[in-house]
Amino acid sequence: MGKVVMYASVSLDGFVADENDQPGPLFDWLTSGDVPLDGSGVLKVSQKSYDYLRPYWDQIGVTITGRHVFDMTDGWDGKPPSGIDHVVVVTHRPAPEGGDPDAPFHFVDGIEAAVVKAQELAGDRIVEVAAGDVGGQVFAAGLIDEVRMDVIPVVFGSGKRYFGSVHAQQLLEDPDVVIPGDRVLHLRYRVRR
């Protein structure tokens, strides 16, 4: 089985979105560089960010996210973001009606079931868990192997927290990756077991 990695861009004070559920400048670094990150022509980053992020993206087989993000993005118009093969959506509600039955979205009730389904779909590839409420629940359940953050030089003051509503202390290993990019600091931590 592949690693389970919690990932997102985050403000210096630990938020993945502001109080209005908007990312503000958290994704500006993804469009302000010279090096195309994918084939869209929209995502362009610095060479340092590309060298760090592209190999990681190529290893992702499945992303786990919550229903709130799925609904906010309108299901990414039926195509998982960043070329991901599958998205597992944690929800207590049924799948939306009228969606493409062949779209690679899987609706699962509960975080443990989501991780099991994602690992089944990903095989040896990485299972990425979007930070925030669902990511925090997966982290609190001890199911995360690694935490990756793209830290952006902005302070939100309030909003949606990277670790959701986790209130228990959890030690991580020292960062094994610290890469300064343009308007971003890439960090990677292994979760201490």
TrEMBL record:
GO molecular function, one term: 5-amino-6-(5-phosphoribosylamino)uracil reductase activity
Gene3D superfamilies per the UniProt record, alphabetical: Dihydrofolate Reductase, subunit A (3.40.430.10)
Domain of life: Bacteria
GO annotation (BP), single: riboflavin biosynthetic process
Span of domain Bacterial bifunctional deaminase-reductase C-terminal: 111-170
Record's protein name: Dihydrofolate reductase
Biological source species: Micromonospora matsumotoense
Source taxonomy: Bacteria, Bacillati, Actinomycetota, Actinomycetes, Micromonosporales
